[in-house]
Design brief:
By secondary structure, the chain is mostly helical. Helices cover 75% and strands 0% of the residues.
């Protein structure tokens, strides 16, 4: 029971860091941290929905299919992560002022906090939602590399976002992906005691 409580505390913390990175450092410059974040920016741009709600809508479609492919435990934890991230963005983006010194510093800080947050989520058997879900579904069906599938999907969303909002976005988004991926890998490979109750593997048993 204690391990379960700790795992959910870490899940909430990781999701909070992910939301903080988006609301404070990335979204103010319309930089998507991934495909779902890119869709959220487009929904916000086209329809004027709040960013937190836009992120939830961008994830909701994929979460519908997650249960069948990944099981109830993984899907439930991912829903909690997405809800926490969306709530964090809704609160911080609209109610907490934050000074921006330079876009490069924001990209570095955003990539760092996003990478730490997602790394924690993966370690406790959850995910950040978004394009992870369709990428794993396509990869399992076609027997392709999940990482490559997700990279292609994200790049397509980045290109669309850059065409609609600003062409420089695709460059900033790729830089953010590169840096945050390195942080995620570092967090995931840290030699600390894993929570045995939760498996980092996504495939449903």
């Amino acid at each position: 029971m204690k391990k379960l409580i700790i795992s959910y505390i870490l899940l909430l913390f990781g999701a909070f860091l992910q939301g903080l990175s988006m609301s404070f450092f990335l979204f103010p410059h319309s930089i998507p941290s991934g495909g779902a974040a890119g869709l959220a920016l487009l929904v916000n741009h086209w329809f004027g929905f709040p960013l937190g709600l836009s992120l939830w809508l961008a994830n909701a479609v994929f979460l519908v299919f997650a249960y069948q492919y990944f099981g109830s435990s993984w899907t439930f934890r991912t829903i909690i992560a997405v809800a926490t991230t969306s709530t964090t963005i809704s609160i911080l983006a609209s109610q907490v002022p934050f000074p921006h010194v330079h876009i490069i510093l924001d990209i570095l800080a955003g990539s760092l906090f996003f990478g730490i947050g997602v790394g924690i989520l993966i370690r406790v058997g959850s995910s950040s939602g978004g394009m992870v879900i369709p990428a794993l579904m396509i990869a399992s069906y076609k027997n392709w590399s999940p990482g490559k599938v997700m990279m292609v999907i994200n790049l397509m969303v980045f290109l669309l976002t850059s065409l609609v909002i600003d062409y420089k976005i695709v460059v900033f988004a790729v830089i953010c992906q590169f840096l945050s991926t390195r942080v995620i890998d570092y967090i995931y490979e840290l030699r600390i005691h894993r929570i045995a109750l939760l498996s980092p593997y996504w495939r449903k048993k």
